[in-house]
Structure formats: structure tokens, C-alpha cells
Write a structure and sequence with these properties.
By secondary structure, this protein is of the alpha+beta class. The chain is built from 1 helix and 2 strands; from the N terminus they run ββα. The longest helix is centred in the last third of the chain and has 21 residues. It binds zinc ion. Zinc ion binds next to loops.
Length: 65
């Protein structure tokens, strides 16, 4: 299978200058706007903290009964 270097990964619009930037670029080639990197870890971190808090509260609850 031939690897096509011009393969279209899709584009996204630069929020700074509005130019179409290839989706695999993490920086705008025109104005050098850095695209925010999506991290699954930082997105799920508040949920993990909430679950840990609920477990902590569930363990403490018998002390107040
Ligand atoms: Zn730009």
C-alpha cells in the first residue's frame, strides 16, 4: 500500500486569522496560533476526582450515624 503524503486529514479553521489549517498541524502556519491539544486525561480528571470524593464521603458517612 502506497503512503500518500498529501493525504487529507481534514482541516480546521484558525480562530485567530480564519485560514484553513490541516488538522494534523498544531500551529497555524500563517499567524502561528497554537491550537489547543485535546487531552483525554485532563478531560476525565474532574470526573475521577468527583468519584474519589464520593467514595471518601461514603466511607466517612458511618462515623456520623
Ligand atoms: Zn492563523
Amino acid at each position: 500500500m502506497k503512503i500518500d503524503s498529501s493525504h487529507d486529514f481534514g482541516t480546521r479553521e484558525c480562530p485567530s486569522c480564519g485560514v484553513r489549517v490541516p488538522a494534523n498541524e498544531n500551529r497555524c502556519p500563517i499567524c502561528h496560533y497554537p491550537f489547543p491539544v485535546k487531552s483525554t486525561l485532563s478531560r476525565s480528571a474532574p470526573l475521577i476526582a468527583l468519584v474519589l470524593l464520593l467514595i471518601f464521603l461514603a466511607l466517612l458517612l458511618p462515623l456520623f450515624l
